[in-house]
Amino acid sequence: MRSLDALESSLIAPRRFTLEEYHRLLHVGVLGEDEHVELLEGLIVDMAPQGRPHALAISRLTEFFMAARRPDCRVRVQLPLSLREDSEPEPDLAVVTREEEDRAQEHPHTALLVVEVAAESLRADRLLKGRVYARAGIPEYWVADVEGRVVEVYTAPDAVQNRYLGMRTVGAGESLGSPALPGLALRVGELFA
């Protein structure tokens, strides 16, 4: 006979969706394309609303990224990435190869660099999304912390451990670059000014 705790936990266990099921929910209109949700590890998750500092950081990053992008890459702003069978996050920015974007049936399956701008979502961006991006093998992941006024740079994804092995914090007096954007020399202080 099952204990009451086991019964309660089975009653409140969330239903996880595959990427295919998630796309069907969008296709038949159960989820509207304008709803602010994303699929993370099989769960349909509400996306945090954007305050002014969050929106300004995305706008500034977009300008910097577009100016520094390689001819063989595209900068995607708040567009989905179809990662593995259970996740389709919508990062604030992603740098993908043109080839990857053009050959994807739905959305690109990988990126060279992904950026999340975080305020209320800081913990989820560090842990949950970091795990999703590391498991997908995305080589570089940035979390732009608008309240802390720093950018956390995660590198060396380990798909077995579902985490990034390298992490450094870049503050206001420092510059930030990326192998995905060789022309980028972003002064972090300008991002949050």
Automatic annotation (TrEMBL):
Checking InterPro entries in the record gives: Nuclease_put_TT1808, Restrct_endonuc-II-like, Uma2
Which superkingdom, per the lineage?
Bacteria
Identify the residues that the record assigns to the Putative restriction endonuclease domain, covering every copy.
19-188
Quote the protein name from its UniProt record.
Putative restriction endonuclease domain-containing protein
